[in-house]
Each structure stands twice: as structure tokens, then as C-alpha cells.
């Protein structure tokens, strides 16, 4: 990026307050680098986002999606960004179905009654698939608070608590993210039961910090709550930024929720040239 003299168009979107920069690189070479992602993710000197999603051409799907955290590291999965991109491409192409290739695998997206659902794949519960640093029962991880470990293409540590509002999210999230139990670090969710199949969730995302929502985290929380016998396979989750729904089916965990297309703009040649 050090020699570029061209501007770069991007789009800003969010799903339940979980906000994204969207770069469309279909028909051209991939543009995102760790340095660009970190610069764009800076909310004071860049644009600011929870994750960056870059669309690329695919041979075996409608498109490929790459995800980046605001610290310049890559993320293997991002449910709300996947939903936002699926909605955007469906609008552009006047379609109701889509296949998206991510590091997680081949994901299916469908529009039903005006809402876009994305199948985030089957949850991973084997210790080496989450992954953990050593063999443990993923339903009862050896950490204070007895959390559940779930892989959704990225690792999640889900704490079932009496009241998610009372959790010291920044302190506990930062500590658990880098616990030696998680060799790739982890996302951290704190979940409490509000009613039948109704959860309150707060989240700390690895590489980003506190976010208003997390789609893959909502899927992980739904799986953890169902495994513990607290809910059925379909739940409504109240997050700081809005409401998501997740349904654990035989073919994977399906996710839906609100989508907001905020604006489209250009990064200047000066900004890009300074990287």
C-alpha cells in the first residue's frame, strides 16, 4: 500500500450495532493488509470498525469473504458481517439465496420474509477444533465460572451467569481472551436467561474488545445454552446493540437480525499513500 496513488471505495454497515467496513475486491486483486486493516480500524485516525470484510471472487461460490479485526489480525468468522454482505449482494443481484466461501467453509444465505438468514455451520465442540491448548471437556472448561467452549470458525468461551449486566466485561473479557487455555485467543460471551428461549448477552471480541453485538458469538451462546439445557435450539438474544436470533439445526446454526447500510465513501490517496 505504500506506493498507491488511487482512492479506494468502501461501504460502512452494521448489524445490531456491530459495525463493519466493507471492501469489494471482486474483479481485482485483494487489497487488505494487516497495516491497512489496523489503520482503517482506528476510530480517530481512520474510519473505525469492529471488523473489516473484503469480498473476493470465488470459483466454487458466489463470493469469498475475508474478515479482519481492528487490530490488523484476521478473523476466521463474523456472523453479522456475513449477514450484512449477504443482504447487500442479494439487493444488488435481486436474489434470495447466496453461497459464501469463508475460512469457516461454504456458508448458505437465504432471504425469508424480508430477513436474511445465514447458516454459520455446525458448532465445533472437540477440544482441538475450538481450539484449546489441551484436552478438556468443552461443556465445562477449567476456568472460574465454569464456561462452555464452542468453535464457530473462531473460538468462543461462553459464561452462563445470573446477570450479564453485572459482569465487569472489559476486565474479564480481556483476561479470558488471552488465557493460555486458548492458543488462538478467544471471544468471550457472558449470557443470562431472561425467559423461555430468551437470552441477554454481552461480548468481548478478540482483537477488538467490547462490541455491541457479535453474530458468531450469538451462535456460540445459543449452542452453549442449549447444551446446558437452559433453552431449546432456537433463541432470541438481546445484545447491547439490538436483537439477534439463532437457531441450531441439523445442518448448522442459522443467524438473523437487523441490517443497516450506512454510507459509501472513498479513502483518499493521501491516506493510502501514508501506509
Q: Would you identify the regions where 5 or more consecutive residues have pLDDT less than 50?
A: none
Order of helices and strands: EEHEEEHEEEEEHEEEHEEEEH
The CATH topology annotation of the largest domain reads as Diaminopimelate Epimerase, Chain A, domain 1
**CATH architectural arrangement of the largest domain:** Roll
Question: What is the count of structural domains?
Answer: 2
Radius of gyration: 18 Å
Mean pLDDT: 96
Largest β sheet strand count, sense and barrel closure? 17 strands, mixed
Summing up helix and strand content along with how strands pair, one would put the structural category as alpha+beta
How many strands?
Answer: 17
- Helix percentage: 10-25%
What is the count of helical runs? 5
Distance between the termini: 6 Å
- Measured by DSSP, the beta-strand proportion falls in 35-45%
